[in-house]
């Protein structure tokens, strides 16, 4: 398998579902991971890593490769861009291999790559099925295997967000907005992806966050948008017809939220009486929508570029035998038009992440 | 082969029985043809949903439903011609993504609606010609050729853009195509543009298929290509026409899709080809060629759309849509087989 993304394509709803599945990482499945002792110190070290000022005696790995599961998605493009940029700062040779949702290809790739590189970053196609291979490989090669997205047996550590906590944050924001602008009325449509634990955690977090502010708030309909905009538009259209009192739309990713908004607009709804809440905000579409001043007012940003940095930093730490916790929580924040500029700077080439500000986001209490 | 003899290949045709006893003919059509059974099932479903959901029969929901099915129906029109002509095109799903991103990029670059539409249609023509050329020129099964094309187009869509192509042109007319209304008809309501476009496409191709020489040739080529060839029909030409029509109509639906989504999504249309082909087969067309009507396809698309609409209106987990769609197709096939046995056509 080539070291750059192998891009054999396939299709079908199952692929789309799997894609969404593996993108929308299940931090909710993460092990209980409150770091203590050496693990906590290791995590603090990772969060404070500076390629130009490494701790004394630290060696820089020569190479790192990320075996992604669905490299064509914007999340992975931004994540691996972040990894590549960070690796360049360390002068680490970085490559990506994409399994394109093929479990067999993913496991073959990690086995082929492992002897050739110093650090392996791995996003499983299926975490349970990948566990035995990763466990055996970790014992065999003795190299750091940094997992992304889903907890997998054998990984040195997992770097991912806490989906529930991120959903809760935007739920609270939405509750406060509805209290201040809709007279406390909150009838929400959840454009979800019920097949996945991670996305269910996002929806659950949102609902509980919303109801923590407005106990009478209701999720009046939950539909399966499959994480795809065209499907989200279709199912949202029907749900909005059945429930014309909906005034909040929550989507488990950017496409789901924007699809719900498109459906609302296509029915001629009054967007001044609508709040759209997204999740991810990895792409330009979300950021533009936030800045447009329309009903899309908040999103749980996952900062893929920053998470890419954390992956490389964790790999460098693990390469130097630093003990790491089972889960390093990547930061999330409820971003709005007002604070987007704190985390991203809009330039000619799009939005550049402000890593300093992102690194200051507290992950306390998240796991 | 004359038109009348060709129509007898269509098991959905009333075949003149109704001229003697209109009511008996209607009953025969309703209970013994694929279209009739579909119509009955659709009516029954509408009655049930109207009783269970207060909004089902509302003007708003009816037009939402019709808008929802418009993309499938437009593409299914082309697919019906192609399947009747004994070929198939699996690439229509990826066309939604490929044509979408290319057309949106063109619109952004030119801020010209017609330029974007022209590029979309041109892409449809090219894809149709390539599919036809490989299938007919190299004598490769169209299933294989268009499966490869499906993969190629999806890959190209991803190659052209790392993410969705957002609307940077803000043309009012463009948005209207996706979510606008053409007119308010008293007593009917506001008619969405996609519904009007679908109606025009349906009528035009229904007339073409049933009232023109090329339409008869499509049935002839699909029913028995060798006999059609010996009769002087250009099998190559007719099938190429069907491939191109399918490509163009898939491109038209892709254009409406990007207008509705306000973006060209490189992940659009996953599984769309199965939805379209499933509807065409449910409508009575046969992969063996020579059979099928656009009325049957329309009824099948309406049935599947109504079912999906009903699932959400009734608050049933929308994940059931996939399973129920498959189940409905299976039931339709079983009913069709039973009907064929009853009339001794198996």
Can I get a quick summary?
The complex is a heterodimer of chains A (367) and B (346). Chain A has 367 residues and is α/β, with parallel strands linked by helices.
Descriptive report:
With 367 residues, chain A is of the alpha/beta class. Chain A has two domains: 176 residues, Response regulator (Rossmann fold), CATH 3.40.50.2300; 139 residues, Response regulator (Rossmann fold), CATH 3.40.50.2300. Chain A is built from 13 helices and 14 strands. A six-stranded parallel sheet of chain A has the order 2-1-3-4-5-11, sandwiched between helices. A six-stranded mixed sheet of chain A has the order 7-6-8-9-10-12, with helices on both faces. In chain A, strands 13-14 form a two-stranded antiparallel sheet. The longest helix of chain A is centred in the middle third of the chain and has 19 residues. The N terminus of chain A is likely disordered. Chain B has a two-stranded antiparallel ribbon. In chain B, strands 2-3 form a two-stranded antiparallel ribbon. The longest helix of chain B is centred in the last third of the chain and has 27 residues. Chains A and B meet through helix 1, strand 7, helix 8, helix 9 and helix 10 of A and helix 4, helix 5, helix 7, helix 12 and helix 14 of B.
- How are the strands of the biggest sheet of chain B laid out side by side? 1-4
Q: End-to-end span of chain A in angstroms?
A: 35 Å
Compute the CA-based radius of gyration of chain A. 20 Å
Instruction: Name the overall outline of chain B.
Output: globular
How many DSSP E strands of chain A? 14
Q: Total number of helical segments of chain A? A: 13
Mean pLDDT of chain B: 87
- Assembly annotation: heterodimer
Order of helical and strand elements of chain A: HHEHEHEHEEHEHEHEHEHEHEEHEEH
CATH topology of chain B, which one? Answer: ABC transporter involved in vitamin B12 uptake, BtuC
Biggest sheet of chain A: strands, sense, closure? Answer: 6 strands, parallel
- Mean pLDDT of chain A comes to 87
CATH class designation of the largest domain in chain A: Alpha Beta
Structural class of chain B: mainly alpha
Largest sheet of chain B: 2 strands, antiparallel
Low-confidence stretches of chain A: 1-34
Per CATH, which architecture of chain B?
A: Orthogonal Bundle
Give the CATH H-level superfamily of the largest domain in chain A: Response regulator
